[in-house]
Design a protein that fits this description.
Largest interface: A-B, 52 and 62 residues
Oligomer: heterodimer
Largest sheet of chain B: 10 strands, antiparallel
CATH class of chain A: Mainly Alpha
Number of domains of chain A: 1
Radius of gyration of chain B: 26 Å
Number of helices of chain B: 7
Number of strands of chain A: 2
Shape of chain B: globular
CATH architecture of one domain in chain B: Beta Barrel
Structural class of chain B: alpha+beta
CATH topology of one domain in chain B: Catalase HpII,  Chain A, domain 1
Order of helices and strands of chain B: HHEEEEHHHEEEHEEEH
């Protein structure tokens, strides 16, 4: 067996930081637009939809990259509960990156609204128009967004804990490398 | 765990106080991020006008009628088509204006906040229309029979709702509040002058319905033209409203039994000095108008079982070739309708057939 890698692959790191920026921007755009009745509501909404589809496409690429590249192992002396939390939170983050754009798309479809990206591009509806389905998906979109943001905060705190307190190689494995 | 690597050479351990300072640093980073989010979503700013707070104001004034729209809840679904004559195709590249038919699902309604209001409760009627183009894009528009809106901004509109809301102690509006509001809002004068002369109509089909807000038509070359639009009835009549609680639905069904009802879609082209950002102001003087075609209604159905029930008539659902203007009410309508739609679609299971003993408002 070859020696374990110490850093994420450059493409994996690029996707991580690009998507980190996009997902955080997306959460703030979403929270801001539903709290506004001004023109801001409109232009944030027009940003939210294409950005969500871009995230959906990128996370598919990212999952492929994740399965095709080697990832550095966690430090051997990490307590078992922290290793488990790391694993589960990563599964959750991937699941949310995939689910949130799909729920958004399905929700607009269930409302019977045309799924417009910009003024003339229309995506097909992926769910039949149905009021109760819309209500369920719309609430899921909101609560999962809060879960997403909390998971990202935990992810951020854990990364800084590795870098500043444990001072192991975990944060470094995503910051730099060959 | 199998996938752990052997320990790397460790850096010298931190002292307890160093550790605490660094943990506090992490806590601070998380706190700043969480606070930024709370600021953006309005949690830290109870004064900010949010879609949910606008809908709360409606619910405070009207009470909550689960499953119904938070405004204009009493209405009837209609269906038919728009027969475009092609005259507006030079102004807008939207498919709906090319010569031919576009199917529509509409809703005729009363502009009160109670689904059991008597039909004469307001001298205004509204008509919401959804045009579905062959390419799947839609044009949704919510029109009213008044020529201008009372105010020009969302904040002033919410203040108007509050000024006319029933006092929780008496159940009636505070008589001092509306005059105070209108004194502070001279922009409401054109609406007040109109409403003084307006009478509840006996029929939906003899009313003119106006977009009130301005929009922008965009032609194939990208040229833009601000417009307001109106549905002008082909049926004439100004019979006084009967002395009854409900008459509009029966009248509509009778009129449709005798044949389809028609409106001309009239586009009023803005002159250069016309305000597009203020729905409280009429566009006065001579204006070029374009008759874009005929809206034909040939069916009606009760709103609780009709196709219009689950449509959010968001005025910013627009096809390529029609855009919102700089009118601040448009974004506010779109945002508040979304909040109302979210609430009422969660309550669909509470909608029943209208009770035999209807509650009076």
């Amino acid at each position: 067996m070859s020696t374990p890698t110490t850093h994420f692959a450059p493409l994996a790191r690029a996707l991580h930081w690009l998507m980190a920026l996009m997902v955080i921007a997306m959460l703030f755009i979403g929270a801001g637009m539903v709290a506004s009745v001004s023109e801001r509501h409109e232009w944030l909404l027009n940003l939210h939809k294409p950005l969500g589809i871009a995230i959906l496409l990128l996370v598919i690429v990212r999952l492929i990259v994740r399965f095709c590249t080697r990832t550095p192992p966690l430090p051997a002396d990490l307590p078992a509960w922290q290793a488990l939390a790391a694993k589960l939170s990563h599964y959750l983050l991937y699941a949310l990156m995939l689910a949130m754009p799909l729920i958004g798309w399905a929700m607009i479809s269930a409302a019977g609204d045309p799924v417009m990206l910009g003024s003339s591009v229309r995506l097909p509806s992926i769910v039949a128009a149905h009021a109760e389905t819309f209500a369920f998906l719309r609430k899921a979109h909101r609560y999962l967004a809060y879960l997403f943001f909390l998971t990202i905060l935990m992810h951020l705190a854990a990364a800084l804990f590795h870098g500043w307190v444990r001072r192991d190689e975990v944060l470094d494995s995503m910051l730099r490398g060959k | 765990m199998v996938d752990r690597e052997p320990p790397y050479p460790r850096k010298p351990p931190l002292s307890t106080s160093e550790k605490l300072v660094r943990m506090a640093g992490i806590g601070l980073v998380v706190l700043i991020a969480a606070s930024a989010f709370a600021y953006v979503n309005g949690s830290l700013d109870p004064q900010r006008l949010t879609p949910a707070r606008v809908v709360d104001v409606f619910e405070h004034s009207n009470g909550v009628h689960p499953g119904y729209r938070r405004n204009h809840p009493k209405g009837i679904c209609v269906a038919g088509y728009f027969e475009s004559n092609g005259a507006a195709a030079a102004l807008s590249r939207a498919q709906v204006f090319a010569t031919g038919r576009t199917p529509v699902i509409g809703r005729l309604a009363l502009p009160t906040g109670n689904p059991y209001s008597p039909d004469s409760a307001a001298p205004i009627r509204s008509f919401a229309v959804q045009f579905t183009q062959a390419d799947g894009q839609q044009w949704r528009t919510g029109m009213n029979s008044m020529p201008v809106f009372p105010v020009g901004t969302p904040a002033a509109f919410v203040d108007l709702l509050k000024a006319t809301a029933p006092d929780p102690k008496t159940g009636k509006p505070d008589p001092a509040k509306p005059p105070a509001f209108f004194a502070a809002h001279p922009e409401a004068q054109p609406f007040l002058a109109w409403v003084k002369t307006a009478k509840p109509s006996a029929s939906f089909v003899t009313e003119t319905y106006n977009s009130v807000n301005a929009f922008v038509l965009v032609d194939a070359s990208g040229k833009r033209q601000a417009v307001r639009w109106s549905l002008v009835p082909q049926a004439k009549g100004d019979a006084p409203a009967p002395d009854a609680k409900d008459y509009l639905q029966q009248d509509l069904t009778e009129k449709l039994a005798s044949g389809p009802q028609r409106w001309n879609l009239l586009l009023t082209l803005a002159n250069s000095q016309d305000p597009t950002n203020d729905a409280s102001k009429a566009w006065s003087g001579d204006h070029k108008t374009v008759n874009a075609g005929t809206l034909v209604v040939d069916k009606d159905s009760p709103q609780l079982s009709g196709d219009c029930r689950d449509i959010n008539y968001d005025p910013l659902v627009l096809p390529s070739g029609i855009e919102g203007s700089d009118d601040p009410l448009l974004a506010a309508r779109s945002a508040a309708y979304a909040a109302s739609y979210m609430r009422r679609t969660s309550e669909v299971d509470q909608l029943k057939a209208e009770p035999a003993q209807e509650k009076q408002p």
